[in-house]
Fold this sequence. Notes:
The complex is a heterotrimer. Helices cover 78% and strands 0% of the residues of chain B. Chain B is built from seven helices and no strands. Chain B has helices at 3-24, 28-48, 52-76, 91-113, 122-127, 130-139, 142-163. In chain B, helix 2 (28-48) packs antiparallel against helix 3 (52-76). Chain C has 26 helices and two strands. In chain C, strand 1 (83-91) and strand 2 (96-103) form a beta hairpin.
Amino acid sequence: MALNQYLILSAFLFCCGVYGVLARRNGVLVLLSVELMLNAVNINLVAFAAFTRNISGQVFALFVITIAAAEVGVGLAIVLLIYRNMRSPDLDRVDQLKG
Amino acid sequence: MTAQNVAFWVLAIAMGAGAVGVVRSRNIVHAALFLIVVLVGAAAQYIVLLAEFVGITQFFIYIGAIAVLFLFGIMLTRAPMSAGDFDNDQRWPAAIVSVFLLGVLIALLVNAFGHDDIKLSDELLRASRTGPVADSIFRSFVVPFEVVSMLLLAALVGAVVIARRD
Amino acid sequence: MLRNAWIIPLLPALGFVAVLLFGKRLPRKGAELAVATVGASFVLSCITAVQWIQRVDDQPGKEAVGGFGRALLPTQEGGVTAVERGFTWWQNANVRFDVGIHIDGLAVMMLFMVTLVSFLVHVYSTRYMHGDRRYTHYFALLNLFTASMLLLVVADNTLMLLVAWELVGVCSFVLIGHWWEEKPNSDAAVKAFLTTRTGDVGLMIGVIVLFFAAGTFNIAVINAKALDGGIGHTLLVVSAACLLIGIIGKSGQFPLHTWLPDAMAGPTPVSALIHAATMVVAGVYLGARLYPVFFRGFSIGDGGLNAMALVGGITIIIGAVLAFVQRDIKKVLAYSTISQLGYMVMALGVGAWVAAIFHLFTHAFFKSLLFLGAGSVSESGSHHSFDMKGDMGGLRKYMPITFVTFVIGSLALAGIFPLAGFWSKDEILVTAGQTGYDAFLYVGLIGAFLTAAYMTRCVYLTFFGEFRGHGEPHESPPTLTIPLIVLAAASVGAGFLNAQPLGIEKFRDWFEAGVSLPALQHPDFDTVKAVISVTIAVVGIGIAAYLWFQREELGPFRNFTQRNAAARAGYRFLENKYYLDDLYENVIVGGIKGPVARASYWVNQHVIDGVVNAIGRGTAIAARETYDVIDQKVVDGAVNGLAETTGETGGLLRYVQSGRVQRYALTLFAAVGALSLALWLVY
């Protein structure tokens, strides 16, 4: 298999995640998009691990998974807080830092 | 056309569709479920690449914990279960940027790795088993491992603090 | 002590500094310190005098040669030499400035006289100036004056003499103007200073000419060169004439005598010390010290007319005449001083060196006695007034000691035998007669007559008749009267130092010794002339006594000047002091200062002020332009423009901060994509 297959797949997933992060209104949906991006990275890492026959890539992917878990936990807590304060999960309302 | 190739392509198409579904769905629950499709597809890809331990971990943690967490979060925020417009007003700029980014990335990748192939071998299989991975973690990467533990602890405490109702 | 005589001027100088620095804190406000220093100087002067006299008496060859007198002059073999001591202060190839002392008979005599009179005046002042507004400064300056005068006397070169000359002039200025808050006093001080300054120009030119003529400032060398022909005759004439101008200014000779009567505005002890006994005789001392220059310059030995005798003679007469028309007792004494100084200068002019110095010596005693007596009268009799006609009269009943001493002083001044003035004045007259200066003999006799007369008038108006003042006249306290008594004793006894018919010529022996002098004639005592002079003096007293004492029976003489127009004009002429003051101040000075002042004013208004105003206007215009254009438009424009731009930019930029994170993220990803593309393309 060509390495590029995995890499391009990963790129595609990543860009979908970017679109989701930028264009989605609900906080949960944004978090979902972030998970998409993280998974794309993981695929990239594991593909390279197979290509270079070095398992450091896999170890790194494991760490990424762990961190993703932590991040989801905190992220959801924040979204919950926003929902409590704003009565709505609409991210467009969170603009108190408006200049 | 080897078996791994076929498996790859099938999984790839499924994952692609799922990704698009996540970002374009009008139903939050549907988006979450589409994400689960992508996660499962990713786990399968890991196994195709002979990274068994990573694949299993992906299953347990991502799908078993994180996706469930998402569903809980959706329910707690009383997100509308029905269809709604979840896109904000920068859809098109976002689309342009992401397509542009995709284009750049593909061009770069083709340019850089156009002629590289993955050779799957028994050696790789043996090296990807739990034992060697564990060894690698606890020897070469023990410091990051500890740091990540601390991170998890911090995230745990932080999540509790943030979500506390007081 | 002869070699250490420099201590004598030093002590009062240190006293001056000490009294200034901490006189005010002492119990007697510095007076005790001043009296102590001068007293110490007097004692040292006495010691110096004794040592000098011993030096003279020990000299062999005293009985020696020549029909010209007893003691040998230093130029002759075996004569007494002066004591000199000094050091070079600075020198280069051509010029040498020395500092040193030169002690000879003349210097010793002056030291003794100056310290004695100064000491008595200091003691007198402790009581007379009691409670004065500047008591401490007065004593400090009195000390400084004494130090300067003593320095003048012991100086061995003309530069030091010049410095001391100026110093005494300054002290005189300050002391005359002691009560300067009243304008007449400060005016008098300025007049004194400026008039003597006019004379000082001559002195300075004379010193410079002598330096170039003799190649040195040292007096002994100058004298020696003058005597033996080392200096050309023309130069001697010029320098003698210039030095004479200095003498005229300082010693109140005609025509620069006008400052002396006005100087009476100062305190009476100051008048006694400075304007009777010491400073005014500085000119005479100069003449005596540099006598060879004058002798050869004016050809004094040849008889006939010479400038010095002429000036002295005129001064005698005009001073004496003016003394008749004064109401103020101090002014009488001032004019008398002018007249007596004229005697001294005339004596120098006719070759009577010893007589001139002797008269200086005796005059110091009785004139200061008269001044201090006048001070005593004003202190205790006339309520601080010196107006004889207004506030005095009949005081002999109330102030016996003052009366007696004053009369003794007057008789001495008039030249009555056997008081001091007789011996000294007589010697002048005799020498004048015997050296071919007959005209000046007659001048001197007329002066003697006038002196006797005006002093009698003065004594009468002060001590006889009815008391015209107010208050309770009484005798002065001992601090005032004891100096009077001492001076009276000196006036009586000093004359005997040179009583020629009695064979005593101590004064000449002691004080002519060691002095550089040309061969002088020392005439013998002429009994005839002595009798004539005494007779003339007695006649003068008699006529004056008749005119004043017997006023009521005068008849035709009463109010003479008021009835006769010619007499009145003459009286007014005298009252206005020969209109000399008017001549000096209005005609000469006014004629110069008027145009000069107007020209200066014109320059100031048009040239200087014009420049200043133009600069001012230019600056104002520049300032306004700067404000309008630069400040308002450019600077403020820049500042305001900057602020507006910033505001508008901010206004635009703030739309970027939407507060929406996704907007930021969009920007971020777009940038990343663009950058990576750019990087890839570059590499």
